[in-house]
Design goal:
single chain, alpha+beta, Thrombin, subunit H, eleven-stranded antiparallel beta sheet, nine-stranded mixed beta sheet, 22 strands, Peptidase_S1_PA_chymotrypsin, signal, Dipeptidyl-peptidase
Amino acid sequence: MSARQRILALSVISVLSMGGAVFADEGMWVFDNLPLKALKQRYNFEPTPGWVERLRSSAVRFNSGGSGSFVSADGLVMTNHHVGADMLQKISTAGKNYHKEGFLAKTRADEIKAPDLELNVLVDIQDVTDRVLAAVKPGMGDSEAGTAKRKAMATIEKESLDKSGLRSDVVTLYQGGKYALYTYKKYTDVRLVFAPEFDIAFFGGDPDNFEFPRYDLDVCFFRAYENDKPAQPKHYLNWSAAGSKDGDLIFVAGHPGKTSRLNTVAHLEYLRDVSFPFSLEILHDREAFLQEYGKKGPEQARQAMDELFGYQNSRKARAGGLKGLKDEALMARKREAENALRERIKADHAAQVAYGSAWDKIATAHQVSTKIAKRYNFLERGFAFDSSLFHIARTLVRLAQEQEKPNADRLREFRESAIESLQLALFSDAPIYPEFEEAKLAHSLAFWKKWMGDIDPLVARVLHGRTPEEVAKDFVQGTKLTDVSVRRDLAKGGLKALLEVDDPMIKLALAVDADARTLRTQYEDEVEAVLSAQYAGIAKATFEAQGDSVYPDATFTLRLAFGTVKGYEAGGKVIPPYTTIGGAFQHADAHGNTPPYVLPLSWHQAKKEGRLNLETAMNFVSTADIIGGNSGSPVVNRDNEVVGLIFDGNVDSLVLDFAFDDRSARAISVDSRAIYEALKSVYHADDLAKELMDKP
């Protein structure tokens, strides 16, 4: 290693480790670069290629956001109740609320088809960095380079799709330092098998969310089908009847959504000062609106239930993340480490030429982002138009426009390799509730108007002298997009059909699309492309110093985390790692058995009849490195057996977006023993329990 490399190695290590403190179980590791040496050194454990293959092939990604795993030879998939909640909501009706009341298929014929649900199983990973970066020619600016890389990625994906027939995504790692082609087997016939009642799946509700001790049965089972028969996955995970114990080494295979640990200080300051505060404004606003809408009646409350949970969960997570970003000690450590790296690079002329300007350019990009953030969020991200009908209309408009272009020139979500998944959602027969859509759209239009003002040209054009309520009523009651056959006809007719149709929602999408596209282009050229190019330079310094022994930030792709079952201290108290089923009843009693601390009648009946083992472990905590998107991830032991199911983190874990620290941050899991005990003793789901225990 050269002197320059040694300097960079020391600097990079300090930048990537929260100001110098290296924590033993840190890392969301890609499956083609696992920390095998560290596992051997720390835990005397050497996973074999077969062990890794089984876990990788058993892991499942939900397109609705979240993780899962195959847990039987007949395509049984385990995830969280809150990951499956979107589907539970879609198959529910005014007369049957599966989200709240739960569901058990007595036979496979009773399993309910979930609309527009796609499961992805990772098949292969190929490094395509050289090919993507080869598209960037000497003399290209960041914007031109960004366009060239996007075209190269689309071409690689299309070639892979044509060759393999598999879903093909080029994934950006290390914020542009590396690119990998991920290919997935897709399952689109997915059926609900079991879900408990909402009151036990989310026992403790919003007050207990991101807290511990917890007592939740946050589990849901689906079954994947192929050719109308249960899928026969190549691998699945065996169930552990014994569960885990304090101090055990455990592993988590899941799809963490997004972390920002490699971000520069300027980037973190942008999140702290601009992005997170604005997000919280919207989250608080939508949460309050949904709570008021739910007060109109039981059916309105049912319609709003899943979205309300989502906003509450996001609001609490964002607030915790913002608290971390406002922690002066954390930011000081980040700033100190970054300054040290920059000073050391300045001492090396070649390094300074190659990487020295990266931080300043990233800071400039975020100045641009700050200027356009509100309009970008309202228009391109659609926050001004909170209606599934609007987003259907926009998708139809853009699909027609993008399909007229060569594949490499399209927006990323409309590339050939993504069209099939896009159409699954576009032509979904999931129910749409006009009253709810009208109320949401009116509220979001009013929020947009409040933030941008009456004099904003686009606000004035859309409202045209009317109130948000009047506009929403006209758009929702006048559209025919609730009819799937109408959507299919419009998609088939292309842009000509869309320009001719007399549909107010289509007209709205057309009216705002040019402005939204302009903002998107500006963001891609002046922010995204700059970040990609400059972070790639910082990543290159990392690779020169120590190869890719540093894990990349999360990207909703499959990762392996590991840790130990371990309690922690909070407020001067020792928090044990496990809770019990009996503790759930005590927790309910301590809160007067009032919502959200009400256990379902099925649990009280099982206890009364002596069927329920109250000593059974219910939830447990571990030091595994997880974040949002890991929900539904299996927790396995050294033998690759399921010992738990990730469903949350404690409040101290909310800072893990930006820096890992396992002193008190913990991942929270449902214990495998609680799941099995509930199936047998509460729900009489003997066949399902037996299926979990069947060995290959």
